[in-house]
Amino acid sequence: MNKQAFIQIKDITKTFGSVVANKDISLTVYKGEIHALLGENGSGKSTLMNVLSGIYSPDSGSIFIDGKEVRFSSPKDSIELGIGMIHQHFKLVDVFTAKENIIAGQSGSFFVGSKKLSKQIKQISEKFGLDIDPDKKIYNMSVGEKQTVEILKVLYRGANILILDEPTAVLTPLEVEKLFKIMKNMKEAGCAVIIITHKMHEVMEISDRITVLRKGETIGTVDKKDTTPKQLTEMMVGRHIDLSIKRVETTGKEPILKVQNLTVLDEEKVKALNDVSFELSKGEILGVAGVAGSGQKELCEAIAGLYPVADGNILYEGEDIVGKNPREIIKKGISMSFIPEDRLGMGLVASMDMVDNLILKDYQNQKGLLIDRAPVKQKAEMLIKKLDIRTPGIHHPVKQLSGGNIQKVLLGREIESNPHLLITAYPVRGLDIGASYTIYDLLNEQKAKDVAILYIGEDLDVLLELCDRIMVLCDGKLIGIVDAKTATKEQLGLMMAGEEMEQEKGVESVV
Amino acid sequence: MDFALLFAYAVHAGTPLLFATLGEMVTEKSGNLNLGVEGMMLMGAVMGFQVGIATSNPLLAVVGAAAAGALGGLIFAFLTVTLRANQVVSGLALTIFGTGFAGFFGQKLTGKIVPGPITTFFGEAKVPLLSDIPFVGKILFAQNLFVYFGYVAAIALGVYLFHTRKGLNLRAVGENPAAADASGINISLYKYTHILLGGALCGLGGAYLSLVYVPTWKENITAGRGWIAVALVIFTTWSPYRAIIGSYLFGCLDIIGFRIQDLKIKVSPYIIDMLPYIVTIVVLVFISMRKSKENAPPKGLGNPYFREDR
Fold first, then answer.
1. In this structure, which CATH number among 3.40.140.10, 3.40.50.620, 3.40.50.300, 3.40.1670.10 belongs to the domain A5-237?
2. B178/A91 CB distance under 8 A
């Protein structure tokens, strides 16, 4: 490794109003290294990288590139120095093609020469082993493709410092593998790569050195070979943390939800759910596993009354709730929290504060014409304390909170309505370890109160530890339901790929 | 009825709409919704007329009109880009301001007539060869220079928006300013330039009314055409090429009243005067039912951009 400091960040401080996002942060990155930036939600990682890419201007502190002090007045300055950032929320124009997104803001001939550029882009993508159609529109792309465009955009500009902000949060394992290969290619080419991620196994796999941030301050920088996930977690969270999830044992086995032969059609009249039947009991966590888009979203929404049911029954406490409107279903004690890929798309109004977001569901229980905010304010204060939501106050717009804190608000609201059946999809999507465990604890707490929980998850390890039973969906079909105590990851993986399990081991017959 | 003549009139009547529509279109492409079109048209109309009376020079008159329109655009840009004021309110205020501006400067102009040299300059100028094409030639190529400039402006704007780097950058600014900013595009510069350009085009639309179409000064010379232009931008789905067709269609609705009188059909003139507005409403209803990514308004339309906003 070349031991000359390539990027040197010294004592950067950045505040947003009264929130201190970065406090005297220092960071050194060398050429030809992959540097991981680790920290909980809201620890200031993204802010720091936005400072480095010229989007935020720091209140104080300095940045040196190749030994020279630099000042960025706009992202343009940072691009010119070879810094390219891939943002957590993609910065792409939806109605443009990949090519148009790549060349936007670039200088060059007055007219956009179509063929030559497409060829040029093809060349670069082949060089780095990327596969992209330059003339495909962004809105027709999958998340993985969009990210490829973002990477190409940076490569096209000839960047030699690549910053990736949680690049793997929404990728499939195969796409992650591809991404890591590109990062390694860049590293070998002598570039510096900075990656922000929560996923410990990724940090251990890809990075050379790791810097940990906590609450806006640098905790330390360590070499990967000298550290363990446990040490990193403790640096991150600031306390010892137990990395196993306990399973609460409950006695009740009284079924509360019976789904019978449920079939729903998507917009193209294709069966998004195909003849799905299962039962869920009080005090049970039923996990749902499956590759993204196997019908999880439709299942949640069908139960919550948001998606039309083509065929079948949903019996809740013996009563068929198909055809009832969402409000009636909520009144019956069914609550849903769905965290979509963009994490803000469903459930909360971004520009409203916590109190008003809580009122969105609460007002129905209030009498009279006017809204009484006082009890809701108390509830908001209570949630902040209970879930350790980091916000300057209950009247702060929720969109200004960090992703994890937004999720806590959403899940907190659903739990506060004291449901009998809680549907929760991807509640820990993009959350750091500490916050994830808070969420697991919350779910277990509900379970102990005899609440039935339908948990749609991504991480198989978590599903196996947290749930009582796991049902596997593939292409809208129920492949099987397994006992989480005896099932294995391999077994789930096979089932997710659509292989039905005939043998008795841990597989219950479909109701 | 002579249809070629009718359509030729439609083009004539549609030209101010075309300029105003192009002006609003380029403004909206930068992500700013300027509802001050009517005001900027009036500013252009009165300033063009004033300069025309004073100098008898057609080119100076046109430049004066464009400058007055751009001044309106500058006020709007300062309010909405620099101060990030609400765009709808700023635009409405600009319309009121423009009406007052025209009223003030137009006081002494009422009843005056455009000087001879200007009228001659903007008289019918047949395009050789093209005007000999049967029917179409008579409609499109037996017009005046100002009308031809309208064709050129629309096509040039189309090429600029869809085939040049600057146009691409502009569209990026209007669609997703955060993405454009991260790509190193100077957002404020693009917004200012194109809001000013849009204002100038609206001013030209106004000048066509006062210098060529009417051509004397009268109060409220635009008669709501600015509002139709705002609707036309939506109707033509932000395409300068389609703006040509849309503007002339509405020009046709504008003049159809006189023609119907010729035919001796008994319809209340008030009903006929309402036609363009009724069609506008109907069109808006249809547009809002259509859902297409390509023909949608710029995504960032109406939202002020602040880099450090989270």
1. 3.40.50.300
2. yes
